[in-house]
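Ticket #243: bound-state structure for flavin mononucleotide.
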Amino acid sequence: MNYRLFFSPTGGTARATELVCGAMETPFVAVDLTLPAARGQHHWFAADDLVVFGLPVYGGRLPQVPGLFDGLRGENTPAVLCACYGNRHYDDMLLEWKTEMEKRGFICIAAAAIVIPHVYSGVLGHGRPDEADLPAIREFARAVMNKKDRTSVTVPGSFPYKKWEKPFRTPEKTAGCVKCGLCQKVCPTAAINDDFVGDPAACIQCMKCVRVCPVGCRQMDMSAVRAYLESNYSVRRENEFFL
Ligand SMILES: Cc1cc2nc3c(=O)[nH]c(=O)nc-3n(C[C@H](O)[C@H](O)[C@H](O)COP(=O)(O)O)c2cc1C
Ligand code: SF4
Ligand code: SF4
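RESOLUTION: The complex was predicted; output attached.
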């Protein structure tokens, strides 16, 4: 069987993996690891399965999501890693990820660094992957399907990995909350309590709760980060593929 795994609070990573798997022209079973309940289950894969896995890059590293890999186990299962990032850079994330996967019984036979919309900016990665990205994505998908050997791919990155600490902050519930509970339901780290207040220690700043709030009362001021990103990283980056 072929499996499409992803963690994707705001949908950019999920869409990128859909495009990669769609271009492989063979059926995939989707496994969405975004919510804690899905990560609490076992996902075991055999040697004749293929796993295409998408994760967003946070701070040039793996997203700091509790239990992200705990339920995953392969038996020399071939895996294709799709590092999805918001047009700044992916730094050491692919190397860190490949190391985690190979500890769990996967062989990373191919990898990609794919630009998706940056959750903190309407400019960085806007509309990506777009029409101009599709030919190279299709070519990559075909090359993966035709790859006969199962050797481990070389990916960029260096160890010790880039230092990045998750910020200690969380979106605030401002006036006007109608207690609908949506923010709590969709939070990937269960960081929102029954009064709909977030825990800055558990929050990964994914912005999902802000996006779903029907009255717009959940807010986090990202204007300084946005201005920094847009003045330094607005030039279009191209996707990269490793085989
Ligand atoms: C906490 C955090 C850190 C991020 N760090 C980076 C980064 O280092 N480089 C980059 O290009 N994009 C970065 N991004 C953008 C994400 O890679 C991505 O655009 C976004 O989170 C959307 O993924 P999703 O739609 O699948 O949830 C970061 C996003 C978040 C929330
Ligand atoms: S509190 Fe909001 S921003 Fe923080 S992890 Fe949960 S959904 Fe994401
Ligand atoms: S989504 Fe918005 S309105 Fe609904 S409980 Fe959360 S903060 Fe309140």
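RESOLUTION NOTES: The mean pLDDT is 97.
TICKET STATUS: resolved
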